[in-house]
Write a structure and sequence with these properties.
- It is built from 13 helices and four strands.
- The protein is mainly α.
- About 50% of the residues are buried.
Length: about 325
């Protein structure tokens, strides 16, 4: 029994599962701490989701991606972000819509912001079409992220809900946030390292493992946030969290990568991911703009994600 557990394939698989569990629990606490801060500031559900909760919920995949790049594996570095965004905007939304059957997506903040930020979502994907992300691309993406935050904050200020809070009231939230962040950082390193080892052991492309195992695993906190939001009738938080996560990962994180860690890629799997993401984000924006989404829309999104995974597997076998 001990020999079986210590065999490389089983050992690294167990490390991946343990890392995902730690990330899931730590991300839940991270969202709790930072959303508590947002509530004390008086932020609306939409803005809390678009910026604050999204920032916390994006930490797992950002950390795993960064650790993958630190370990010189671009497959994990890119796959963790692109794969998780497919899960965020397509699979998570699809499953939530199917479970919720009919969901209202109406918001005073989000309605005015949605089509404004759609071109921002497309920007990093089009910048990647030349097979590289350089420093100029990174600066453009960071500027785009600043525009995104400015737009969201401008709409929130019009509602006049944000107010000042004493620092002493934020101590508990800050402690929870920092402790959870450390746990995610450590678990993210174990997850990236074990994925690379498992990839080498079974001759599976690390990118394929990253967009599936890591993508779905690190998106579990986001799924929990969205499901809780729908069940508690706070759909602004759920949809806003998806939009915010995409903005943070594709604009802020990719922007920082472009400036400090410029890279290029030639992988066919990465090229295929980009058009799927464009279609997925376009459908997501259209459904959210309709203000009411049903389980039929959910089925379309889940089918799109299934097609994405099948194509990735087929590419591997070519």
């Amino acid at each position: 029994m001990l020999d079986f557990l210590l065999s490389p394939g089983v050992f690294f698989s167990l490390v991946i599962l343990a890392s995902l569990f730690i990330i899931f629990k730590a991300a839940d606490l991270l969202v709790l701490g930072i959303s508590g801060y947002a509530k004390k500031l008086g932020m609306s559900d939409a803005t809390s989701g678009l910026v604050v909760v999204a920032m916390a919920a994006s930490m797992p995949e950002v950390m795993v991606s960064f650790m993958g790049l630190q370990l010189n594996d671009l497959g994990v570095g890119l796959g963790a972000i692109l794969g998780t965004n497919m899960v965020h905007a397509v699979l998570v939304l699809g499953v939530v819509l199917i479970l919720g059957k009919k969901i209202k997506l109406d918001s005073e903040v989000m309605g005015k912001t949605l089509w404004f930020i759609y071109p921002l979502f497309m920007l990093p994907l089009f910048l990647l079409l030349d097979g590289k992300l350089g420093r100029i691309d990174g600066i453009i993406l960071l500027l785009a992220f600043c525009v995104y935050v400015w737009r969201v904050c401008r709409e929130e200020r019009k509602l006049g809900k944000i107010h000042n809070v004493k620092a002493s009231r934020l101590f508990k939230d800050s402690f929870i946030f920092l402790g959870s962040l450390v746990a995610i950082l450590l678990a993210g390193r174990w997850l990236a390292f074990s994925t690379i080892q498992l990839s080498s052991l079974f001759n599976i492309p690390s990118y394929l493992l990253a967009i599936t195992v890591i993508g779905i695993g690190t998106a579990m906190p986001d799924f929990a946030v969205n499901l809780k939001a729908v069940m508690s009738k706070h759909t602004d938080v759920g949809v806003g969290e998806i939009i915010g996560s995409v903005a943070i990962e594709l604009l802020l994180y990719f922007g920082l990568l472009g400036i400090f860690f410029p890279f290029s890629f030639t992988s066919k799997a990465t090229w295929v991911t980009i058009p799927f993401l464009i279609v997925g984000l376009t459908l997501f924006t259209w459904f959210a703009h309709k203000k009411i989404a049903t389980w039929r829309h959910g089925v379309i999104m889940v089918a799109l994600y299934a097609a994405f995974v099948i194509v990735q597997i087929l590419i591997r076998n070519l």
